[in-house]
Amino acid sequence: LEDLQDAFDFCYKVHYQPGEDRSRDPQYVRQLQALQAKLQNLDQQRREVLAQMQQLLGRSETLRELLQQELGDWRERQQRSCLGAPADTDLRPLETWFTELGQRLFQLRQLLRALRDLQQKVTYERDPLAAETPLLEQRLQEQLAHLLKSAFVVEQQPSTPNAFKRPLVLRTGSKFSARARLLVRLQDRDYHMEATIHIDRDPPKVKGFRKFNILTSNSKTLQPGDRSQEGLVCDFQYLTLKEQKDSRSGKGSKGAGESPLVVTEELHLITFTLAYAYCGLELELKTSTLPFIIISNNNQFSSAWASILWFNMLSSDPKDQQFFSAPPPAPWPRLAEVLSWQFESVAERGLSQDHLLMLAEKLFG
C-alpha cells in the first residue's frame, strides 16, 4: 500500500497541473488517465486491506469467545479443586492462547495506526480509510479491553500454609497467601505495573459485618523477571488480617455491631487491581478471589469449612457475600459427590455407593 501510494503521489505531483486547459494535449490526457488508473488501483487495494482487517477482527472475536468458554471451564475446575476434587488447574495452555491472541490484536493495532498515517499523507474523495479506520480502531480497542480484563485471574485462592488442602478458611493473626496472574504475557520493559489488593472493597450492607485490615504491604510492582516462563504474576505472601474494632460496642459485647450472620457464615473477598500498560494502551484490571471465611480460633474451623462447601456447591454468583442470609438446601446427589471428594483429597480414595448409602441413612433415616 505504501509503495502504491508513493507512486501515485509522485505521479500526481509531476503530471497533474490544475488550472491549465490541456484537454487537447493527447500526452497530458494519457498521463491523467494513467494517474486515474493508479488512484483506482490504490483505492481497490485500500478496500481489500480493510476487508481483510474486518475478517481478522471477526475471527479474533470468535476465538476470544472460545477462550472465554475455556476460562469458564478452568474456573469451575479450580472451584472443584478447592473442595478436594481431582482437577487439572494448570494455566499454561490458557496463558499461551491468551498471549498469542493478544499479540495478534496488538499487531493489528499497529497496522491500523500505519493505515491512519498513510491516509494522512494521501487522501481523496470517498477514501475508505477515512470512513472505516476509526470504526475498526474502536472495535479493536474493545476486543483488547475485553481480552485483557478477562485474562486477569486468581491463580491461587487465599489459603494458609498448613491448610490440609482446605483453602478459603483464614484465621486472624495467621499468615496466608494469594496469587493472581495475567494470562496475556505482554509487558513494556520501561513501565513497571503495580498491583494492589483490598479486602471487602464493596462490603455488603449488613449491620455488624466485620471489617478487616491487611497488616502487610498491599501493593507490589510487577517487573519483567529473568525467566520469561514465570509470566506476569502478583504473588502476595505472608499476609495477615486484623479485625477493625467497632468503637460503639462495649467490652465483651457486640453491641451496635451485632451481625445477623454468625462468624462462620460471613463471606469476605479480596480484590486484585492491576494498572496495566502496553504499547500506549492503559487499562485498570480487576479480579476477585472466591469468598472466604475468617475465624479467630480453631474451634470454628469445621463450621467454617462446611460453609465453604455449601457456598461453592450451590452459589451461582462467586461474589454473593450475602449467600447465607437465605442459604438454599443441597440436593443429596450433589452433597454426596462433594463428600466423596473430601475423602479422596486426604485418603486418595473416594466413597463407594455403600458408603454414601450409609451416610444418607444417617442423614435422612
Describe this structure in words.
It is a single chain. It contains seven helices and eleven strands. With 365 residues, the protein is of the alpha+beta class. The chain has a domain of 149 residues: STAT transcription factor, all-alpha domain (Glutathione S-transferase Yfyf (Class Pi), Chain A, domain 2, Up-down Bundle). The strands form four sheets. It has a four-stranded antiparallel sheet. Strand 9 and strand 10 form a beta hairpin. Helix 1 runs antiparallel to helix 2 and helix 2 runs parallel beside helix 4. The chain starts with a helix and ends with a helix. GO terms for molecular function: DNA binding; DNA-binding transcription factor activity. InterPro entries: p53-like_TF_DNA-bd_sf, STAT, STAT_linker, STAT_TF_alpha, STAT_TF_CC, STAT_TF_DNA-bd, STAT_TF_DNA-bd_N.
Layout: helices, strands, pairs:
Blueprint: H1 2-15, H2 26-82, H3 92-121, H4 128-150, E1 152-159, E2 169-171, E3 176-182, E4 193-199, E5 212-214, E6 219-222, E7 232-239, E8 241-243, E9 270-278, E10 281-288, E11 293-295, H5 301-314, H6 332-347, H7 353-364
